[in-house]
Amino acid sequence: MAAVQEARTGDVGSRVPQTRPARRVLVFPLPFQGHINPMMQLADVLHGRGLAVTVLHTHFNALDPALHPAFDFVSVADGIPADVAASKSGNIIDIILAMNEAMEASTAVDEVLASVMADEARPRPACLFLDGNLLAVQKAAVRLGLPTLVLRTGCAACLGGFLAFPMFYQKGYLPRQVSQLYMPVKELPPLRVRDIFFSVDNNHEKVRTIIARIIETVKGSSGVVINTFEALEAKELERIRRELDLPLVLAAGPLHKLSSTTTGSSLLDQDYSCIKWLDSQPARSVLYVSFGSLASLSSNEFLEVAWGLANSGHNFLWVVRPGMIRGMNGIHLPNGFDVAVEGRGKVIQWAPQQEVLAHQAVGAFWTHNGWNSTLESISEGIPMICRPHSLDQTMNARYVAEIWGVGFELEGELERRKIELAIRNLMSGKEGAEMRERAEDLKMKVVECLESSGSSHIAIDKLVNYILSL
Ligand code: UDX
């Protein structure tokens, strides 16, 4: 293991690496794709700076150690009831609550952490990086005297919204009322009530509990790293730093652009045949369509999307994830669809998304606005059609449209004619061209923040030095 290269902050550029005995970080991602990816990207970045990495993971959505040979892997009993776990991507909020409850009721986490910490064959752990949804794991770490850092896998505005949740209730914005959905949250522009974090599958009390626990975990940590960058969310970061009395609040993203591994943590097999197909398409001619690892469509919505894509006349690459269509076993595209889209449309089950968005043939992204997808699109200068489903997606979509101006929301019922017009607007309309320009500008800001003198690169320098000081 290379000794850690301790960066001397301030003299960026002419950095003279100093060697020190290697230290180790433990990472514990929440076992869902949108949380696994940023945590493994962060682990890869820290490993690249000379830190040894041990990945703690649940049996549920277990990671494949073979994909990260440089890391140690330790499995932790998660106690998720079989029926709750059965649907895999299931109801994320129920699974988070069930997992934390089971972990808090057992000594499994304490035992695993204690044995990892006692392992003298490996460098002493400096800290445990955990997902903000793992309060039970943080409690075990505190009992063992192990410092914790939190990786926030959503944007800074999302964490700001979590901090404001008590105010949302005090002011009557929540519980959300259908009649108030478009009411502005004047204390937190540009949010409206409809943009506040919510779940379609759970009552608002469960959501309130989950968010209160995330805030408790963040406030109980030795610092928080957010997968965003300073230029994108300066105002939100400033407010969070003011509200959180923590020694470290770092914007160290886009993590996937700092990480060397892009495919190392996909729970589904990524279909690389689409890259060869993209190679045969003209530059910026393809609309990439994907709704992440959790969102779903009704079978009727599925048909409307299919015909909206076909009738738009534009090229498209559409991810139809297994299980994405409620009430449909398997993927049954409508009769005549294949003929209608021959040569210009391709449907796959799971994409190498980061490579797809970086491909010169892709000109736009129809997304559900999960934060990773949103940040990956921004990183490649790709404008978006936003179709948020729930959770933080509505807030992400609001910022894409209102603050960053690199997309627009497709609201209301999914209907083929509306879809067709939205695609044409983004792919070949004036408004779409203006969004593309702004997306290109944001891409340049991403490039800048990743340079050795850039804000995210310096944030990682600070993080490594901070970890070494623990
Ligand atoms: C979940 C929540 O839904 C989201 O709101 C939250 O911000 C993060 O956790 P998910 O819905 O899976 O995430 O969406 P997203 O955040 O976009 O993460 C999906 C990840 O899977 C991305 O990193 C994307 O690159 C990857 N992906 C997606 C693929 O590798 N292939 C695909 O076909 C689609």
Automatic annotation (TrEMBL):
Keyword field: Transferase
InterPro entries xrefs: UDP_glucos_trans
A GO molecular-function descriptor: quercetin 7-O-glucosyltransferase activity
Record-linked Pfam families: UDPGT
Keyword Transferase: yes
CDD domains xref list: GT1_Gtf-like (cd03784)
Family: Belongs to the UDP-glycosyltransferase family.
The protein's name in its UniProt record: Glycosyltransferase
Taxonomic source organism: Eragrostis curvula (weeping love grass)
